[in-house]
Write a structure and sequence with these properties.
Two copies of one chain form a homodimer. Chain A is of the alpha/beta class. Chain A has helices at 3-26, 28-35, 67-78, 112-126, 142-145, 155-167, 172-180, 189-194, 227-236, 245-255, 281-294, 310-327, 355-366, 398-404, 409-414, 418-425; strands at residues 36-39, 42-45, 48-51, 57-63, 84-90, 101-105, 132-138, 198-204, 273-279, 298-309, 335-344, 373-379, 391-395, 428-429, 440-446. The relative contact order of chain A is 0.12.
């Protein structure tokens, strides 16, 4: 191998070790065990201490794509102290547990199996007393997987309204406002049902910025929206005239004060409630930063809130790499800048790819000849777009190598065909499904001059 | 005024002082005087020392929109030591000088007045000997303003070819390759003409990344492209058959070795040549960083290479502001992140605006309610798009204020009407023409919580 090839191999290996550091930090089991620690009879959760001798029962509920490995980890930590539990997971997203029931259900479209599971969760926590501890496990997909319409409302009616709102251009916030007021558990209502038990909610976040009231619609988190807000959304989108009768009845009862609204911030419901984010984009980003520092890189987290068109975001990342290579700002080399969030791709072509692969391809075009620079783009769920890759890596040599293979990079980009571009270069990152999801991460690396 | 209004006024005043710090650092006269210092009989330029007693004559040439104030500053520094000089400026871009002739000429389309001026520059430096010093003043627009076709080629012929290349989608690099081989002074040829005199070139850069061979087509900078490269570009764009005869003759003579190619890196032409960037995006960005630090801000330069669609770049900047507000990464508050470059706007609407105003509008949408955050977007020439504003400022209060005025921000953005949005809010930044241009700067500010 030429010195150049040796160097490129070394870089690639470092890149993959950063990917590994990110994924290890947010693996659901690892994440739960890191935040839920038993020492003697004490349970430590994020600085809070619970005296386990106090509890008559410990009950587990929850839902989401990562609920099974989370449940497994809770069993590993609390063992025979657990009393009972059930979590809803997407079909196939199972893991072996001893006591906690893994109930497979529909996602992204809720089904009756999910509703049945959610109803059993409600029954379980309804029975809880001040001597009980409820642990709620939340992860991506939890909103659909823990769907439980308010009494009298059918899944089909709820779906019909949701579809109408989507068609008329409702925002995700508007949608959630309505959903919370048609649900039996969303918007803090699960916490109200669990009262007066202690409640610990462990959250694996797949929403940018980690808003606890949004993830799985915040079943144990105060809600700031009201029946009035929900009604206003429905009116503004012109759907008030044509509401399914069961939904009209629910909202009218809410507006008339015959139904309690969702519990608000300051409500005593939340006095014994503790929501802990065990895995998030931020946790993954910080883990990469710490790992990069052990590899003697100057490292910083730029943001975990990045949204926007993938190829344009790539332009900014490439600009940062160029600046570091040029002036050692904002970090001296070797440098690692970590950015997270979730970009989008406006599809115009007919190729195969994902937002991370497209970001890497756009970065490759802009890093042409900037030999010290490298950009690694990763979807933490291991599935970037409809592909078997988690992302891709691009560097200052990528374009030269592409030209040598006769690959027309701008054409691949125009056709949204990043997968086939990186496949032919051997620069796809393939992890397989990771059982977790904390959105996307990009690592901007700038290596020292070879000397 | 309410405490909120007082705070907003304080922030606005700080924002404008950052704008001032940026513009002051790259004002052409200031920039020249900072880099060209006379101490006794010694001239200090960027660490090099020239013994002024050695020179029989000091000659000034150059071109660009800022050439007049640069010439003025050179007169202020070197006074009676100057022998003669001429610079080409855009019509109206004048400043009073005592000795150096300010020749007004066409821009962006070169005209015969510009050619006449450039010819007189060549005559002046042609006469230079080893006992002379030539100072060349380069700024934005210099390529058009110092146009001097090679002998036998007319401006009209050169223009016809350039237009053909543009129509067939040639890149700016391809265009420059051809231009340098049809010119009498571009691509280092002015330096060759000046040999064996000492040459100092002072550059005010309006090209992202400050590539010296690109700014004004690098009249005193080695060229890496050849007659063969120029010919290949013309062939690849299918223009070889239909070349104006004068251009065909020039290129054939070049290919046959009957004309010297442009001087290459390592050519002795450049032994006595010194190119100094006196003003650039990087210099402005660093000045803002230093000023922000005097105001007790944690400050860093993120990049001076940022290109991309303005509204998408804004998304990344807003994400950085959110991260700082959320976690104190990558900088603790109060924080100032400085980013420079030049974005673009894909115009889809019919409104009035510029890339900086549009960036600020897109940032305002994403900063809604992020009260500690502020984004200031500035075109350093004082003219952002076809408007009388240099840019605009947006913060976490902007959207609330816009709603109170009944302004529909997404609609203004969709219509590329950022000027009227910020005009109604009173948040335009108006500096008037600044006589300089080092592209665009954005300041991302995150203030402490008010206490």
């Amino acid at each position: 191998m030429s010195p150049d090839e040796i160097e490129q191999k070394r870089r690639r290996s470092l890149a993959l070790s950063l990917v590994r550091a990110a994924l290890d930090a947010v693996e659901p089991g690892v994440a739960v065990r890191r935040h839920l620690v038993v020492a003697g009879d004490r349970l430590e959760v994020n600085g809070r201490t619970y005296d386990l001798r106090r509890y008559r029962r410990i009950l587990i509920v929850g839902g989401g794509k990562a609920a099974a490995p989370m449940a497994q980890a809770v069993e590993a930590v609390l063992g025979d102290r657990l009393t009972a539990g059930i979590v809803n997971v997407k079909y196939g997203y199972v893991a072996p547990t001893r006591l906690i029931e893994i109930n497979q259900a529909g996602h992204p479209i809720p089904d009756e199996r999910g509703v049945a599971g959610a109803r059993r969760m409600v029954e379980l926590v309804q029975s809880a007393t001040a001597d009980d501890l409820v642990i709620c496990l939340i992860s991506g997909g939890g909103s659909a997987l823990m769907a439980l319409p308010a009494p009298g409302i059918s899944l089909a009616d709820k779906r019909r309204l949701t579809d109408g709102l989507l068609r008329s251009g409702a925002t995700i916030n508007e949608l959630n406002t309505v959903r919370k007021h048609l649900s039996a558990i969303k918007g803090g209502q699960l916490a109200r049902i669990a009262r007066p038990a202690d409640v610990i909610t462990l959250v694996l976040s797949d929403v940018v910025g980690c808003p606890l009231d949004v993830i799985a619609s915040g079943p144990t988190v105060p809600d700031t929206t009201t029946f009035q807000d929900a009604w206003r959304v429905i009116e503004q989108h012109g759907l008030a005239e044509d509401l399914p009768p069961s939904i009209a009845r629910q909202l009218q009862a809410g507006l008339a004060g015959e139904l309690p609204d969702t519990p608000k911030p300051g409500d005593p419901t939340f006095d014994r409630c503790c929501n802990v984010v065990v895995a998030s984009n931020e946790i993954a980003a910080r883990a990469v930063r710490e790992y990069a520092r052990t590899q003697r890189f100057n490292a910083m987290v730029l943001s975990t809130f990045v949204e926007g068109e993938a190829r344009e975001v790539a332009a900014v990342y490439a600009a940062i790499a160029r600046e570091i290579a040029h002036s050692g700002q904002p970090l001296a080399r070797p440098a690692c800048v970590i950015a997270g969030g979730e970009t989008v791709v406006t599809v115009r072509g007919h190729g195969l790819g994902g937002r991370n692969q497209e970001l890497a391809l756009a970065a490759a075009l802009r890093l042409d000849g900037i030999l010290p620079a490298m950009v690694i783009a990763l979807g933490t769920d291991g599935t970037d777009g409809p592909t078997d890759a988690a992302g891709a890596m691009a560097d200052g040599y990528t374009m030269e190598r592409a030209r040598a293979l006769g690959l027309d990079a701008p054409k691949f980009l125009a056709d949204n065909d990043s997968y086939h571009f990186f496949q032919q270069l051997g620069d796809l990152i393939v992890t397989g499904p990771t059982n977790t999801n904390v959105n996307d991460l990009t690592f901007i690396l700038v290596f020292p001059e070879r000397g």
